[in-house]
Amino acid sequence: MLRVRAEEPCRDKTAKMIILLKGVPYNFSRAEGDVVVPCDILEGEYPEFLVPVFVALQLRGAELVEMGIDPGASRSGIVVLVGDEVVYKGVLPTSELLCSLERLSRYYRLRVYLGIGARSFSLEASRWGHRVEVVEVEERDLPVVEGVGHGKNHEVDALRILLKGKLIKMKERLENTLSRE
Predict the structure, then answer these.
(1) How many CB atoms lie within 10 A of CB 84?
(2) What residue segments make up the domains of the chain, in order of their start?
(3) CATH topology of domain 64-181
(4) What is the pLDDT of residue 60?
(5) Which of 37, 146, 158, 167 has the highest count of CB atoms within 10 angstroms of its CB?
(6) Among the listed residues 120, 150, 134, the one whose alpha carbon sits nearest the alpha carbon of residue 67
(7) What is the predicted pLDDT for the residue at 27?
(8) CB–CB of 128/139 below 8 Å?
(9) The whole model's pTM is what?
(10) Across the strands, what pairs with 34?
(11) Phi and psi dihedrals of 70, rounded to 5?
């Protein structure tokens, strides 16, 4: 059985947290564990994103979290991956995205695959130090995912950016391994 509670100083936000967890597409019904959600996650700029992602990451014991981001002028698509499981996909206001990533970086190492296209979008990862790695992914020639679709959907493009970014990192690791031999 899953038990989720708010950190002591913000216990009054427990009801809000339960509503947020019931409203997400991710299924917590089979989850087991005890998760304490910190106040800065509950009181973040976009708790609809932060709370379910934090709980899902805690349940998996995640250390490294990978994200595909399709940045838009006002809204950005985001897909959050732990291991081989997508724990969140959605669209967030771009203005809230940086603050949300900063809050998550306090608890996890983040690898952000950032779509680079016609718009310039900067993740000031340097201010977070070693906790955030940004991998810029050129948005042209993104992989087509069978059955997922394509087009101008930020969420789908974020998934495609994540997949291309993971391929880039795998290629780098393979090249490093081969160069040592």
Answers:
(1) 5
(2) 1-61, 64-181
(3) Nucleotidyltransferase; domain 5 (3.30.420)
(4) 87
(5) 158
(6) 134
(7) 63
(8) no
(9) 0.84
(10) 3
(11) -105, 95
